[in-house]
């Protein structure tokens, strides 16, 4: 009753209150659409099947209909929409009580004011064409406006009554940006050189050096592999191994070369459809084939195929458009203007693949074979040997097994009574026989015909070499459309065996159509995605890079730019970045190329906004706890792969070899076996493979590498970064073999560097956190070292056990008690909050 009475009083107040001319203009996109989306679209939105009362509030024509109107522009007191929001009648109030949705008095007042102001309609902000906003003119004596990013940030802070932080210390800056752009910590020499460089552009020179480093591509590839659902196995119970790693290496090369993002897009979605497509362009389309493959028994091939195509369409929708297309498999989208028919229109672009969905072959055609010149030379050599030996066998078999001029076959060799498989082998030319067939022939005849047996053995050996070489040639699954076009149908409830209306390849109408006259293929789709007229791709892309740098995107819902997603915290900045990405004009160094990711990142990391101290004041903690307004520099937990790479780099163990097949590092026994019912057994690599960058770790899809945490599953497209901080993570960073061994190697490194303990501690902190310890920190660490020395001196067996962790060899000249004590101390340094954080 109290609830009904409150609504009745509110209704009376609204009815009696005249329209207030002084009210600020209500924005449909900013103020009204989010309310309608949250409270109304479930029943009165795009999804026709879920729509109630034949009322639609997501389009202008339907919401402002003339017949039986629910909104009367300029007259909220005559608008049924407003009356239903404030009525005390439980049978009429909207949203209905059973929906568990309610509107606040402020939201109702916003809708009323909007109606009274004329109910001006508009588009969702993300579907509007991107226009370059004017750069604000602002100034702050403590904040240098180095590029337009700073102007937008400072203008926003001024409006919010907040002041920016001062610049971070130089040691903090070089560690922050080196981790940002390479995923590795700076070396002590790089830090010292930066501290010594007093030139005005010292920091910019560091940034340019890092952008030119080959480690840049390795670092930037990680998030792209998450989005591309890259893995080294198929997934599902069978989880067969695949050879997609050459595609991963192509990504690294493309990023290092700063391939323009529009070209990066076109190659991955449609490289095979470019004129005279090269092997590299075809290889790039492996992006679409990174989906899981289901080869389980009893699985229907067409059902698999449909799943694969859906995955391609939904991944494309997430990565380039930031829209939740998967919601449209079974029905029209409940919130965004995306129809089920449009989902299958996007699906149709990928539905021409020749893959039929049968079996679980992790190298299902079409594939590209990537032979090296060395492979070709070896195959040519063994091919010549096979041809020569086969010729000799041909000649000998003509004598042994044929009747020429009435001469009977040799009495030594009879084929009349030999088995169905020996005769079959003899019926083939020697060059066409398998190694198994050659072996059976050798076993059958070699005891009686020595020369014949020797030739069979030679040919078997050569065929084995050839087969081994071919087996090792990477075959990467790529895209290729079948010659006969395949019809596409809307699938009822998304079921492969419930086709309904036939559909053609189209893009969502709300985003505009494809240019007239172009073929409806993947190439046209890819070019449309990176067209300057597309309102989403540039926004979505720069937002993900912003998330990568600052921890949270300007739109927090990086995967959802629809009406249920977050509105940008600073839309002017987002739109400026998007236009600058596509059509760069900023005078910041050499003329940048269009769609240059390096240019975008350089702008971000050289801005004053990025260079601020990350110190949190009480005011900032209360007003902006998540740092969305950027009154301080970024500070976030490093991803687990970066923490591992840092430990290896600081210890000196890191092996910088780039590319190649995935490696198996340290892992507890039985993990693969448990996850696969014993079908997959883990075999650890040795030597340099143990110390490669995390990017090159073999990724089994059903059980990710155990040394990582907070990582994507790589089963579906993932673009939202997750960072947590739990005690369970310390179990890895304190006890995992990689980290203990890294601490031991780091201890050996600093013990050899200087004779005094304080100097050794300083060197360890320089290697890990890029700065010297404070006097107080030094005293604490010296006291800890003293305790550790006493413990290991009293228990030399424990020292020996600790120093035996890992396969790298320790310097036997070092005192074991000293090295064990420093190993434990270095473990502490590697686990400092400052060491695990990019700040």
TrEMBL record:
Q: Do you know which Pfam families this protein is assigned to?
A: PSCyt1, PSCyt2, PSD1
Question: What keywords sit in the KW lines?
Answer: Signal
The UniProt record lists the DUF1549 domain at: 148-353
User: Taking every annotated instance into account, which residue ranges of this chain make up the domain DUF1553?
Assistant: 521-782
Keyword Transport included in the entry's annotation: no
Q: What GO MF terms are annotated? A: electron transfer activity; heme binding
Point out the signal peptide segment.
Answer: 1-21
- Span of domain Cytochrome C Planctomycete-type: 40-97
Record carries keyword Transferase: no
Q: What is this protein called?
A: Chromosome segregation protein
Q: Native species of this protein?
A: Fimbriiglobus ruber
